[in-house]
Amino acid sequence: MNAREFIRVAAFMPTLTLGLGTLPASAQVDFSGETIEIVYNTGPGGAVALTAQLVAQNLGRYLPGTPEVIAVPMPGGALLRGIQHVYNSEPDGLTLGWLAWGGSTRVLDDPALQVPYHEMGILGGLATQWVTHVRTEIDGTEVTTPEAFMALSAVRAGGIAPNTSTDIRTAAALDILGIGNTYVGGHTGGADVLAALRRGEVDLRSGTISNYLTTVVPELVETGESIPLFYWGLPTEGGEEATPALDGIPTFHAFVTEQTGASPDGPSYDVIRYLTRTADGLAWLFALPPGAAQDMQDVFADAYAQMVTDPAFTEGAARVLGTSPEVVSRETAIEIIADVQNVTPDILDTMRSYIERHSR
Amino acid sequence: MIDSILAGFALIAQWPTPLYLVAGVLIGIWLGAVPGLGGVTGLVLVLPFTFSMEPAPAFALMLGMFAPITTADTLSSVLLGTPGTAGSQATVLDGYPLAKKGQAERALGAAYTVSAFGGVFGALMLLLFLPIAMPLIMLLGTPDFFLLALLGLLMVGSVSGPSLAKGMGAAAIGLLMSQVGFPVSSPAPRYWFGEISLMDGLPLVPVVLGLFGVAEMLRLSLRDSSISAVPREQAEGGRLIDGIRDAFHHRWLAFRCAMLGTYLGMLPGIGNAVADWIAYGHAVQSAKDKSQFGKGDIRGVIAPESTNNAVIGAALIPTLTLGIPGTGAMAILLGAMLIHGLTPGRMMLTEHLDLTISMIWTIVIANVLAAGLLMIWGRQFARAAFISGHYIVPAVLMFLFMGAWLFAADLSSWYLLLAFGVLGWLMGEAGWPRPPLVLGFVLGKIMEQSAILALQSYALADFMTRPQTLILIACVVLFLGYSAWSALRTAKALGDNPAQEGAVRNAWLSVGFGLAMLAIFGWALSEALDWTLFARTMPMIITISGIAIFLFTITTDFRRGLRAAQGPLIEAPMKTVVFFGLLLAMVLGAWWVGQMVAMTAFVLIYLLVVGRVRPLWGVALYSLGVFCVLYGLYAEVLNVRFLRAHLW
Fold it and tell me: pLDDT (tens digit, 9 = 90+) per residue, B215-270?
């Protein structure tokens, strides 16, 4: 029995127990006096942790019995430890996951390490976006306009690891723009890449919308150290969706069209669209373990849908994220997970080629 | 500026902020004193409570709690030979021998004095350097980080004991351990045995707690006596006031180490785990008489304790000014800032300057207050050194195992803790020093990451045109020569103390240890051959160097074994087997009966069988107390998720 089979059997056992008549669920869903754990799969302190804390602080009010809800960190295993913990937990509603799920690139992992997310009780999530910005001085050349950027022959792009969705997209975007790019990977996180950019060790990076608005704009853009280039907008028919919070910055599609006179296409752009839809469109997944009764899933999904409109949550999230949280509904989250399951071999091959190119 | 300083103080003085500050200090003392808890645990614990608070009291609580942890962690380092946190690892080297001499009070007195000084110094430097911090931090790039880490690794000579070769061998083991998990720029993890808990590398907490904590508890248990070998009434020159005098006597050492801590703290990614070793190495290198280091030299306590408190204030500089959190704890503080609508950067020096300065006040007050309180309680704490070790061992083991569990709530963390406990004990028995292993382990990842990033970002010619890089290269070269010369002298002076790290032991056991390492390094080398260039370079350098070192030590130990009759292979083998057997039974039993039951049962059996503690009602009370701590403190207060019992 391989690891995946083991996970499935382990997940099936509680389902079987439920089926044998312990909990008929639905109307009996009542968490009075219970403590519910929201497990997040990163270390404490980052955006995932803080939003998990905010969910924990606000969710209980919308659940039957108004239980205590706590956020529990479970980092490790390249984010997999927390995911597997939630996956293998009993579907009794006392353990939920707030997960940086990374499903869009995990499809390339060893099958034994892949997680069948579609088996989990999907409740919704949050989306994010990434803004690519560049230093205004590269090897003595001033880069204060997009046109000056387009005139560059090559740049050093800072990143974290070859298989992260952002690093793959950054390379794909530069390829489409016809700008030579060297990957400087291995930084410990976004802040580390930002420091490298300020030291002049990398020329360009992509940061989350939150990082861009709260740090990059006041510290680098307003001081003339960096200019924004574009962001990857959620794919639409024939283009990308604009984000009001990033008014004044073009989507990647608009940037390419404006700078080259032609719309982007080809395998690299297919990868960008796939990753933007699945990785940005569902950055953090809120889910129950597999086997949770449908009524229980409904209770949690409804509670989440109500909570995300509560000013106590939205204001807190806006402070952490630098902009209003982009809520992902349960239905959209389920669609995105299905998209990942059905990703085409061509897109997988293109992603693999970027990972190979960046692996050293 | 004066207005801002006063405005910052006004924020701290405004009720109920002083209450939160004092509460924070008390929690911080507790978190530091119990091995395995530490700052991250505390910040995670209090962070949710601060969401609805005003920023000033929120940061008074968090920083008030965080700042004194590196003062209180000295208790565990001195009294138990176990680092209370990663920032007090080097304190163990001389603090614990002082406790064994009955001079725990003196060690604590010196440590608290310089901790308060270092903490205040770091906070004042934060105030002074805030406006000009950015160029100072940005001055050093990835090549310089590599050279700094290399400079730190050269301290291996200072912590190796009598045999430099074994120190280098131990450092190679630590460096190899640092290679577990994802390499810097490749998506395939190394040496992970298909275990996902190893994908991100070996965790520092179980490694250090096992190497020092578990191994020292075994030693204490085998000694069948108190920590101090000297009765309380016969311990001379070991009073708290003597320690305070020592601190003033070595004030320039404390000053230099506080400066060192300030600069190292400012550099993101270096942190306390590295800074205190470098400070210890500096104390050894700069001392004329090195003969007492490792045996209970007060300078070996003063240097790291002055440094690790200074690091705290300095670590806030990149967090506040650049939004770059150098450590996990700083990442949480950064998160707390965002929650309160504060953006790191220039606004912290303009719009929110009063709040920034209130943080500095918090650090100053918390350090002084904590040191004062710990001084007052110091005598009571130091008494622990004179009571039977059997009363201490089971409770400390509980804290150690819970410390590992807090770090990763997974049985693999217990297995790791136990495995490194065995390794720590084995190294002690075989005469291999443990500190170089930790030094290699904490520096290995920094060295590899900064080297690979530097190679990607710079051309070779760039290195030669960077003055800061050239200065550091010169420092490395000079220090290498000095270290080699100094280490040989130190080794000669240190070779006569059987209780010291790396002291000469049975040669045949050392040969066996060397052979085992040779096999492991050979296997690690063969694994590395197929990896990508950057993924294999560091492991190959480490393994090839390690193989050469182990061949050398095996040869010299073999000759030594043939030359002279050797003592017993290991001390008290049966008791050792029982000790580790009980711990293994606890770990295995935890899966079946749950951790609380397994740990309580371990304590009960230990007290009855190993400690032969009587009366029985006392044993029952002790075990009940352990259960209550597990339930009340860990399960209820800290919300620890215990493993459920699978038997019922």
Answer: 989 988 998 888 777 776 666 667 888 999 999 999 999 999 999 888 888 877 77
Domain enclosing residue A192, as ranges: 131-278
Whether residues A73 and A149 share a domain: the answer is no
Residues of A in contact with B452 (CB under 8 A): 186, 360
The answer to the question of residue A106 being in a domain is: yes
Q: Does A53 touch chain B (CB under 8 A)?
A: yes
User: Does residue B441 belong to any structural domain of this protein?
Assistant: yes
Q: How far is A255 from chain B (nearest CA, A)?
A: 27
Are residues A190 and A164 in contact, defined by beta-carbon separation less than 8 angstroms? no
Last residue of a domain, one of B463, B488, B505: B505
Does B185 sit within 8 Å of A358, measured CB to CB? yes
Residue B582 belongs to what domain range?
Answer: 573-637
Inter-chain touch A53–B48, beta carbons under 8 Å: yes
| 3-class DSSP state of B84 | coil
Is residue B643 situated within a structural domain? Answer: no
A49 touches chain B (CB under 8 A): yes
A330 and A194 in a single domain? The answer is no
Would you call A161 and B187 a contact, using CB atoms and an 8 Å cutoff? yes
Q: Quick check: A87 contacting B, CB < 8 Å?
A: no
Estimate to the nearest angstrom the gap between the alpha carbon of B239 and the chain centroid: 26
Look at residue A315 and tell me if it is in a domain.
yes
Cis peptide preceding B16, ω within 30 of 0: yes
The sign one gets for the Cα dihedral B218, B221, B222, B225 is: positive
Q: Is A221 on the interface with B (CB under 8 A)?
A: no
B454 and B586 both lie in a single domain: no
Domain count, chain A: 2
Give per-residue pLDDT as tens, A250-280: 999 999 999 999 999 999 999 999 999 999 9
- Give Cβ neighbours of residue B66 (< 8 Å, ≥ 6 apart): B24, B28, B39, B42, B43, B312, B329, B333
Separation of first and last alpha carbons in chain A: 33
| Within a domain: A75 | yes
Residue A210 sits in a domain of what CATH number? 3.40.190.10
Residue B359: which of B132, B114, B61 has the closest Cα? B61
- Is there a single domain that holds both residue B450 and residue B595? no
How far apart CA A74 and CA B393 sit, in angstroms, is 29
Chain B neighbours among A 146-165 (CB < 8 Å)? 156, 161-163
- Read off the pLDDT band of B502 (50, 70, 90): low
Closest CA to B269 of B435, B149, B175, B436: B149
* Cross-chain residue pair A201–B141, CB shorter than 8 Å: yes
